[in-house]
Q: What sequence folds into this?
């Protein structure tokens, strides 16, 4: 039960943070990505703040073996940058740049009733299903 409450609170905090920072506004995101045009640096500050919080969180997690809710903490073990990682990152970046939405803000947009979410989320799910179908064939 505590795990679900903490998950809910973390999700709400993340969603409100995305709304307040403007990360759910596709036009603002595209303005951030337009470094050779009317560049909007404000989202870089949001990402920098998120990175600072994440660094502290990871350092705290490395010092513990068990989470606050009693689960084992498993830190990632892969450190190699692979061709698949680079291609996936490029595809993610291209999609983000084209529409100005990534998965977290896309889900938040569903709750706000913006039409872009009703196009983006099904397209994202289709992309995930296509990947699941293709992934065994790529190995």
A:
């Amino acid at each position: 039960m505590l795990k679900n409450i903490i998950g809910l609170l973390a999700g709400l905090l993340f969603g409100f943070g995305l709304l307040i920072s403007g990360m759910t506004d596709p036009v603002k995101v595209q303005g951030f990505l337009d470094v050779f045009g009317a560049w909007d640096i404000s989202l870089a500050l949001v990402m920098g703040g998120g990175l600072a919080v994440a660094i502290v969180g990871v350092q705290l997690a490395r010092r513990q073996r068990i989470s606050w809710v009693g689960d084992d903490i498993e830190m990632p073990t892969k450190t190699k940058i692979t061709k698949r990682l680079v291609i996936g990152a490029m595809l993610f970046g291209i999609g983000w740049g084209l529409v100005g939405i990534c998965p977290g803000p896309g889900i938040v947009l569903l709750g706000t009733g913006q039409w872009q979410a009703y196009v983006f989320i099904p397209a994202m799910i289709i992309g995930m299903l296509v990947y699941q179908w293709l992934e065994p064939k790529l190995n």
Q: What stands out?
A: The first helix runs from residue 2 to 21. The CA atoms of residues 31 and 56 lie 29 Å apart.
